[in-house]
Amino acid sequence: MFFKKTKEMPIELDNLPKHVAFIMDGNGRWAKRRGLPRLMGHNAGTEMLKRIVIESKKLKIENITFYAFSTENWRRPEDEVNGLMDILVKFFRSEIDEIVENKVKINIFGDIDVLPKYAKTEVLRAIERTQHHTEMNFNIALNYGGRDEIIRAVKEIATEYKSEKIALDDIDESLFSDHLFSKGLPDPDLLIRTSGEQRLSNFMLWQVAYTEFVFDEHYWPDFDETLYRSALIKYQKRHRRFGAI
Ligand code: FPP
Questions:
Q1: Could you give the maximum distance between any two Cα atoms of the chain, in Å?
Q2: Which domain range does residue 173 map to?
Q3: Which residues contact 160 (CB under 8 A, 6 or more apart)?
Q4: Is 69 helix (H, G, I), strand (E, B) or coil?
Q5: Measured from the CA of 30, which atom of ligand 1 is nearest?
Q6: CATH number of the domain where residue 159 is located
Q7: pTM
Q8: Per-residue pLDDT of the chain (245 residues; tens, 9 = 90+)
Q9: How remote is the CA of residue 222 from the centroid of ligand 1, in Å?
């Protein structure tokens, strides 16, 4: 009997990252290359985000974080900002039932108080409906900035110190981490940025201290399951030492 060779890649299922963070870059360039408006790129990017969430769930990766909107993204043209808010709302409205069925928990990293009211309402509803879920943390960084997150933590800790809730010696890495949006979650083991850019852009500055980075050349809407798996394989080939030898 003749067996066909499968295309399955040799991913080690027992050595997967516990937390993968994504900088979904290149939606605008993806659209431009096709002569389409930028928002079409963000729409295509959202479709890929869904596929990557599903693939992560299949692989039993417990925590995934997507950089959807930064504190700096408000500087984009009003049409694009409004379009991104609409995409977010549409995403939650159409996907929330499936997210709930799959027992996935939505966490938002960032201050959602300044979002347009209709977007904030939808986000809060999604958080509320998924609060008690434990299958996977699906984190969305929204109006998020790494420096902003650190300043917030410093202010909260200073307030606790001033009111004598904590002593100076109580301040350590663990206490600091507990004041971040990612409280209680492991730091990312792997960060993937698409589109060939190789920078952090103010993303999870504290949490990526020992994270492995994979920079992929493809624009985010083209970053499919196969490319995701090859990024995971690259991660598996790295030798993580955490400062030891
Ligand atoms: C970066 O590409 C992408 C963004 C700033 C937005 C990403 C947001 C989404 C894909 C929507 C997320 C939706 C949900 C539901 C979480 P860019 O526009 O900066 O690309 P460019 O560098 O090619 O211009």
A1: 76
A2: 19-236
A3: 166
A4: strand
A5: 23
A6: 3.40.1180.10
A7: 0.94
A8: 444 444 556 899 999 999 999 999 999 999 999 999 999 999 999 999 999 999 999 999 999 999 999 999 999 999 999 999 999 999 999 999 999 999 999 999 999 999 999 999 999 999 999 999 999 999 999 999 999 999 999 999 999 999 999 999 999 999 999 999 999 999 999 999 999 999 999 999 999 999 999 999 999 999 999 999 999 999 999 977 778 77
A9: 13
